[in-house]
């Protein structure tokens, strides 16, 4: 527990030091400053860590990684509510352990992610019942190493946030993201280093599409401070492929398939501000696989939990 608290503090300090952002959460719509030509420049960072990787059992075992997804943004105001621009994303991971690599200590790394072209409308329309609608459309270009390894052509994402003020102190949001992955192939060769330190190669299927939706309830203590509860679902679907489909386990010609992944997320959140220009959202999420360990939802086991901090700083 002490290590987890230390991770909280480290994450907060590091994200605060590097984060300047634009609006992505309707509850923290950031009023950006556009110059006389209608342009704005900003920086966003999302930091996260895995709860079960934060315990330190010795110097050689290391500690859990801090992961930061960041992007620089150049945007232009097209109309009062409609903005368009480009985002230049990059990922930074500190040295440490993570679940993906089976708890093995990994080196720090910095690498480019897929460049994003976007259109965004902070107030697309007002639906009956005074439901506000935020919309953003994105095109992800295959500039990252992972996308190029898959020969991915692009990814197209549609994002809506429907927000409703329930009372003087309660707000509700429904957040929906749908992504389609435009692939040039259905399978690819994936090379990695296994637990023994040897290089291994497997045939992996490419992703087809993804749906993520989340319901957020907020209790507002004031305009900047509040506590919330979030529940969501993330579905990932993959292509089937006859390429390299047969091996010692499959019959020749039988298409290789991968079942969809259904994740359920639940947990508390807090939002707060240091001043009128700096806001934060801190979440502690319990994430389970609906087909494997659904019964563990809301138990907040460390191996299922993730801590995320979003920071918003405006000029």
Care to describe what's here?
β11 and β12 form a beta hairpin. This protein has two helices and 17 strands. It has a twelve-stranded antiparallel beta barrel. It has a two-stranded antiparallel sheet with strand order 4-5. With 315 residues, it is mainly beta. The chain has one domain (2-313): monomeric porin ompg (Porin). The model is unreliable at 1-31 and 56-61 (pLDDT under 50).
DSSP, total strands? 17
Could you tell me the CATH topology label: Porin
CATH architecture: Beta Barrel
Strand proportion: over 45%
Task: Throw out a few tags for this protein.
single chain; 315 residues; Porin; two-stranded antiparallel ribbon; 2 helices; 54% strand
How would you summarize what this structure contains?
The chain is mainly beta and 315 residues long.
Question: How would the blueprint of this fold be written?
Answer:
Layout: H1 2-18, E1 39-50, E2 67-77, E3 82-93, E4 96-97, E5 105-106, E6 109-112, E7 116-127, E8 131-140, H2 145-149, E9 152-165, E10 170-183, E11 187-193, E12 199-205, E13 207-220, E14 226-238, E15 261-275, E16 278-289, E17 305-313
Antiparallel strand pairs: 1-2, 1-17, 2-3, 3-6, 3-7, 4-5, 7-8, 8-9, 9-10, 10-13, 11-12, 13-14, 14-15, 15-16, 16-17
């Amino acid at each position: 527990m002490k290590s987890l608290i230390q991770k909280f503090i480290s994450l907060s300090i590091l994200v605060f030091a590097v984060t300047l952002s634009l609006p992505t959460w309707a509850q923290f719509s950031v009023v950006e400053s556009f110059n006389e030509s209608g342009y704005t420049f900003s920086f966003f960072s999302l930091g996260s860590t895995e709860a079960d990787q934060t315990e330190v059992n010795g110097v050689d075992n290391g500690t859990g990684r801090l992961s930061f997804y960041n992007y620089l943004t150049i945007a232009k105001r097209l109309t009062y509510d409609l903005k368009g621009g480009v985002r230049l994303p990059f990922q930074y991971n500190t040295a440490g352990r993570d679940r993906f690599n089976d708890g093995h200590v990994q080196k720090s790394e910095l690498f480019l992610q897929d460049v994003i072209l976007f259109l965004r409308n902070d107030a697309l329309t007002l639906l009956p019942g005074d439901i506000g609608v935020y919309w953003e459309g994105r095109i992800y270009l295959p500039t990252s190493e992972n996308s190029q390894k898959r020969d991915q052509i692009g990814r197209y994402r549609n994002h809506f946030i429907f927000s409703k003020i329930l009372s003087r102190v309660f707000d509700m949001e429904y957040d929906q993201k749908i992504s389609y992955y435009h692939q040039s192939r259905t399978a690819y060769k994936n090379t990695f280093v296994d637990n023994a330190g040897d290089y291994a190669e497997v045939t992996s299927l490419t992703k087809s599409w993804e749906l993520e939706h989340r319901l957020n309830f907020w209790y507002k203590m004031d305009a900047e401070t509040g506590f919330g509860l979030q529940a969501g679902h993330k579905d990932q679907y993959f292509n089937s492929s006859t390429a390299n489909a047969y091996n010692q386990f499959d019959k020749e010609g039988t298409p290789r398939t991968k079942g969809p992944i259904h994740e359920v997320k639940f947990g508390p959140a807090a939002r707060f501000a240091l001043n009128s220009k700096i806001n934060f959202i801190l979440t502690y999420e319990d994430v389970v696989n609906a087909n494997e360990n659904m019964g563990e939802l809301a138990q907040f086991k460390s191996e299922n939990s993730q801590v995320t901090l979003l920071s918003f700083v405006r000029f």
